[in-house]
Amino acid sequence: MPAVGSIGGNRRPPAPANRPFTGCPDVLAHALHDLLQQLDNAARRAGRPSPRLLAVSKFQSATAVAELAAAWRRERPGQWPAFGENYVQEAQAKQAALADPDLEWHLIGHLQSNKAREAAALFDWVQSLDRAKLVAALAAHRDSARAPLNVLVQVNIDDEASKHGCRPDQVPALAAAIAAQPRLALRGLMAIPAPLPDPERRRAAFARMRGLFEQLRAAYPQADTLSMGMSEDAALAVAEGATMVRVGTALFGPRVRQPQDGRPD
């Protein structure tokens, strides 16, 4: 049985457990259809709008991304398929292989300052902004001919030593710094709560994030995105107000890093 609040528990297995998705478009299409329905149902039960889906494509092939994007366009015409990557180098290779200008790319992994130039050029969104140094670096390297770079402040909501993200009390200062940069667009907050076995404790973390998000929106009405929830807890996140969920396993199956994958940045 899937965990309480999980997504993707009612469909056929997406891929063998010992490898990532390698090439069955029908499997991806069914997975996407089921996932979008489950997200819509979770939102309906909670009395909230359906969240945006971000497909986490870390360690997935460019072929898998292309096939999911094609299925997405058939399933939800008019939507821009959005993909989340952890590493600048891996995203760069996929974008070069795909050459598809109508995909939306999000950086969801930790960003080192020395990769800010590449990130500002490659991505439409950076969801992992967690320190002031990155604000200036991303703004300086965003091409003025392009739309401003959408950014989310990553919050370490459970104060985990192993996680990146700012403290909740640091959000106002970071938000003000972002809002002052014309090449950046403050869009909201992102969090990865601790993987607690008790769903109610996860729900409490999501609720704390919703409170922070509401405070941010009161000061910055343009902030419209609360990115939280993954395959195992997306339904809980939607119930607590997530406007975007980041799902990989429920779409592609388990991730297994391959030798040709981009190295950590």
Automatic annotation (TrEMBL):
Start and end residues of each stretch annotated as Disordered: 1-21
Domain Alanine racemase N-terminal: from-to ranges: 35-254
Residue list for modification N6-(pyridoxal phosphate)lysine: K58
Entry superkingdom: Bacteria
Keywords of this entry: Pyridoxal phosphate
A GO MF label: pyridoxal phosphate binding
Record Gene3D superfamilies: Alanine racemase
Cofactor(s) the protein needs: pyridoxal 5'-phosphate
Repeat in keyword set: no
InterPro entries referenced in this protein's UniProt entry, alphabetically: Ala_racemase_N (IPR001608), PLP-binding_barrel (IPR029066), PyrdxlP_homeostasis (IPR011078)
Record's function text: Pyridoxal 5'-phosphate (PLP)-binding protein, which is involved in PLP homeostasis.
Family that this chain belongs to: Belongs to the pyridoxal phosphate-binding protein YggS/PROSC family.
Protein name in the entry: Pyridoxal phosphate homeostasis protein
Organism of derivation: Cognatiluteimonas weifangensis
The organism's taxonomic lineage, starting at the top: Bacteria, Pseudomonadati, Pseudomonadota, Gammaproteobacteria, Lysobacterales
